[in-house]
Structure formats: C-alpha cells, structure tokens
Hints:
By secondary structure, this protein is of the alpha+beta class. It folds into 2 domains: 2-70, no CATH class; 79-281, Fumarylacetoacetate hydrolase, domain 2, CATH 3.90.850. The protein is built from 6 helices and 18 strands. The strands form 3 sheets. Strands 5, 6, 7, 9, 10, 11, 12, 15 and 16 form a 9-stranded mixed sheet that branches. Strands 8-18-17-13-14 form a 5-stranded mixed sheet, with no helix packed on it. Strands 3-2-1-4 form a 4-stranded antiparallel sheet, with helices on one face. The termini are far apart. Residues 78-280 form the Fumarylacetoacetase-like C-terminal domain.
Amino acid sequence: MRLATIIHNSTRRPCLIDPDRGAIPVDLLVPGFAGDLMAVLNQDVYAQACEAARSGPASAFIDLDSVTYAAPYLAPPKLWGIGLNYVDHAGDLSENVPDEPASFVKGSHTIIGPGDPIPLPAQSERVTAEAEVGVVIGRYCRNVSEAEALDYVWGVVPILDQTAEDILQRNPRFLTRSKNFPGFFSFGPQLVPLDEVLTTFNSLADIEVETVHNGRVHRSNHVANMTFSPEMLVSFHSQVMPLFPGDIISTGTPGAVVINHGDEVECRIAGIGTLGNPVRRAGAGEGAE
Length: 289
C-alpha cells in the first residue's frame, strides 16, 4: 500500500492508501503509534499496518475523493538534489554534462505539500520549477554498491524543486542560496513503495517525468535518459555520508520552467502520481535571504 499524510479534522494524520477503499490512519492500525509518516517507513511498522488494514472495517477508511493531502513529512534527515542529470536539460542551460553527480542539499524549511503555494521570494526575479522523481530511503545506508542500492530504497515520490535562477547565474557558488528559499521543495501526494513501482514498470528507467506549466507539458523525459541512474545516485551518496530512513534524493529534472504569480505547476509521473502547486508572490517576511 502507498503512504500519505492527510489533513483530517484539522489534524495531520499519516495514512495507508488503499486505491479501492481509501485512506486509513496508521494510528487506527498500530496500537500506540504516535509518529509521523517517516516512522511508517520502518518495515516492521509498515508491515503491521498493512496487515491490519487488510482486515480493517470499511467504516475506518476515508474516501480518497474527500482527502486533502499534506507534505508526507516535514523533517527528513536530508534532502539531496541533483543538477543537470538529463543530458537534454544540460543542453538547455548550455552546460557540460558533469562527470560526477552535481549534488546539493536543501533544508527542511523549504518543504511544502500538494496544493500549497510556492512563494516567489523578493530577492529573485526569475524562479524556475523543476519536476523530478524522488527516491525515498527506507533503511540505514552506507557504502553500498550500485547493484544493492535499491535494497535500501523504500519507494518513490513526485517532487517540484525550485531555483532562484537569476541568483545562481550570478555565480555558481550561490547554488545553496538559490535552492533554499521557503517553499522551494514540494513533494507528495503519495509515497509509492518500490515493489509497486517495479510491478508497474520493468525498471526505474521506464518512469517518465513531466514538468507541466499551466496545464501544458513543458518538458518530459524518461529516467533511462539520466546521466546517473537512481541506483548510482544512492550508491554514490552513501559513500559520501550515511543515508537514513526518510532521506530523499531528488534525481534531477527533464526541464525547468520559469514560474510567475498566478501560475500552476505540476510534476506528472504516470503510474506514480501528480503533484501540483500554485505560484504566489511571497508575503511580507517570506522568502527573505
């Protein structure tokens, strides 16, 4: 079953998602559970919740048509982003394809969820949104090989990664600043377990990611056309530092699109889900450097 956090009776509730019956809160399935969705990545908790959900009464499920999704969780240990990971996207920016992953880290303050506004910071006049597929780490991972990397992955999730592109263009050393304004990392609505992904697709390489701007597909590409595969990215970063359950590696975009106040931007991944956010000018005190 998939995982999601919903807003129910004004409260964030981690849930299992059964496509036929709806959403069921984990606290109804696991006695004493009081954690966030990240705690459900623990295989024992997840397995216990799934077993209980299979026999749960229909009355315990919430109709998915009435569900309001939130960001799955708010305090991941790390958010890794990967730049220029599709050859075509590097060409768009007149950049050379890097010999090693061009990675950066984002803070948890950047997190928003489905439907939340992406605030445009006053410090930037050119912000881009980038649809990506995120890899969610499921267990402690350190110095693993590419061949065993997927053993440490819980699943995948749609992502919208934002960049203050004009700040970055002034100097490539401004990458961290350009990537870390509030609202510059949206993910959700559902975490899709790896077993389901590999049942739907022959491999992660078959996943197609679309950046959608105001209802129009701006750019799309398949994971097969990445310079560095998700497996390689997990292995590579596990050799830099430990990866922990809940860490997310956002694997790169097929194409960024400039966003302005009033726009709607989406990450569409067939078979995985659609993540959408409106774009708004930041209010007073938001997005400050």
